[in-house]
Specification:
- The chain is an all-alpha fold.
- Helix content is about 70%, strand content about 0%.
- It contains 21 helices and 2 strands.
- It has helices spanning about 1-5, 35-55, 60-65, 70-100, 100-115, 125-135, 140-150, 160-170, 170-190, 195-200, 205-220, 230-235, 245-255, 255-265, 270-285, 290-305, 310-325, 325-345, 350-375, 385-405, 415-430, and strands spanning about 435-440, 440-445.
- The chain has a two-stranded antiparallel ribbon with strand order 1-2.
- Strand 1 and strand 2 (about 440-445) form a beta hairpin.
- The radius of gyration is 22 Å and the shape is globular.
- The two termini are about 25 Å apart.
Length: about 475
């Protein structure tokens, strides 16, 4: 087999690759095919999904008045937006394993784009909650994003690739905080459209944007370095069990490391999602700033994803090079613990500028923790990478649902107290990282116990 594969002409890659044809270098501003083009399509497609999902919160004060929404209605809608993505993220992992990330991602985006457009037709609290639930399904594209990067980039740069792809994509939640109020005000001031009509019209923009990016993924994307999914599977000379859905699910679900990472991710990315949902309204109500300023402040939280999540991926890769898997785990625990402490502090600050400064610091650490989490995910299981990615990604939305339900949905606590309690939850749910152990690499608190007779186990480890 080896002699046959060596006799085949090498594929013309512009980047250096390993034996699996995965790129060993990451050049963020390159468009070389297939690795970097896949990177740009992945982050841009997910960016549009975040833009769409969080296009509603910056306009909530207006929508609230138009639909006569109560705080409970708004809280339930926030929960619904995350609940929808729990199940879709779980399904997205096996879907990527069975049909490839390109078709899985584009199909979901095309199916949810009309739902975003249907926001224009909302007329009651019940329909508002339903729309937010259905739009939330689009966030499952995060799983295909991370799967795609793990399929294109080698272990020495996969943390960075995952971090930048997700970080730039997550900026969509910040950009929409700026763009949606701007479009709304422009329609009122320059087109003289009534306010309760203007907020409906602007949802044409995120729906169209999401559909366009999905088509780009289908037309220009490539699942793997060797080609699209069907072609790669046909040409593969290695035995594989990836066509068996039950096998994929079984090996993924029984891996306890995936469950711990899901919990951890639930209280870094999940907390980030919850903050995206409530932060504009928090500053609007508590500090009595206007709608556009509240949106600008909230945008600062999401926009730090431009560098914070990529930094998390870079830290994970650097710690991995220096200390192996133990370094990746220690880096994740330290960064997420600091994020929890800053979240507690955010709820205790009583001044506008003090809150903005702490919020920005908190955003850097909580988003970096997400990058560090997905610096570990690709090494948990080769056979069930999609399932592990889906479990971890779903954990993020489960964490968002839990925090939204307990703390921001008709809670007896004030929003500032709820934010501090959310920080405490982060600290507690970060502790199980200490239980993650890789026989070849060890864990946070103990070294490896390598057994050469188990060289073909279904988890992938650092050399």
């Amino acid at each position: 087999m080896e002699s046959q594969s060596k006799s085949q002409p090498p594929l013309p890659f512009s980047l250096p690759v390993d034996e699996d044809q995965k790129a060993t270098e990451f050049k963020a501003f390159s468009l070389t095919q297939p690795h970097m083009l896949a990177f740009h399509l992945a982050w841009l497609s997910l960016f549009s999904c975040f833009f769409s999902t969080f296009s509603i919160p910056p306009l909530l004060p207006i929508i609230r008045d138009d639909l006569n929404l109560t705080d409970t209605d708004i809280g339930h809608a926030g929960i619904a937006s995350f609940a929808g993505s729990i199940f879709s993220r779980l399904a997205m992992g096996p879907a990527c394993d069975l049909m490839g990330p390109r078709i899985a991602s584009a199909t979901l985006s095309l199916l949810t784009a009309p739902i975003i457009l249907a926001t224009c037709l909302v007329s009651s609290p019940q329909s508002f909650i339903l729309i937010r639930f259905l739009i939330g399904f689009s966030l499952a594209s995060f799983v295909s994003n991370q799967y795609w990067m793990s399929s294109m980039f080698s272990s020495n740069v996969v943390g960075l690739a995952n971090g930048v792809a997700a970080g730039w994509a997550n900026m969509g939640s910040g950009v929409t905080q700026l763009v949606m109020p701007f479009l709304y005000n422009s329609l009122i001031n320059y087109c003289e459209i009534p306010p309760f009509t203007a907020w409906r019209v602007v949802f044409i923009v995120p729906a169209t944007f999401q559909a366009i990016t999905a088509i780009m993924v289908l037309v220009y994307g490539q699942d793997f370095p060797s080609g699209n999914y069907k072609k790669s599977r046909t040409q593969s000379t290695k035995p594989t069990q990836k066509d068996n859905l039950l096998t994929i699910l079984f090996h993924g679900l029984r891996n306890y490391r995936g469950w711990i990472l899901a919990l951890t991710y639930g209280f870094c990315f999940g907390v980030e999602l919850t903050t995206d949902n409530i932060i504009a309204q928090y500053f609007y109500d508590r500090f009595e700033v206007n709608l556009q300023l509240a949106g600008t402040i909230a945008a600062c939280f999401g926009m730090t994803n431009c560098f914070s999540r990529p930094i998390g991926g870079m830290v994970s890769d650097e710690m991995g090079k220096r200390f192996g898997m133990r370094g990746r785990l220690w880096g994740l625990w330290v960064v997420q613990t600091v994020a929890g402490l800053l979240c507690m502090l955010l709820g205790r600050i009583n001044t506008l500028w003090g809150s903005i400064i702490v919020m920005c610091c908190f955003s850097v650490f909580v988003q970096a923790a997400s990058g560090l989490t997905f610096g570990v995910v690709p090494f948990v299981s080769q056979r069930s990478l999609g399932v592990i990615s889906g479990m971890t990604g779903s954990g993020g939305t489960v964490g968002a649902v839990v925090t939204q339900l307990l703390l921001f949905s008709g809670s007896k606590f004030s929003k500032q107290t709820s934010i501090s309690l959310m920080g405490i939850m982060m600290l507690v749910c970060t502790l199980p990282i200490t239980l993650i152990y890789f026989p070849r690499s060890g864990g946070m608190l103990c070294g490896p116990s390598f057994n050469p007779n188990k060289a073909n186990e279904d988890y992938h480890l650092l050399e």
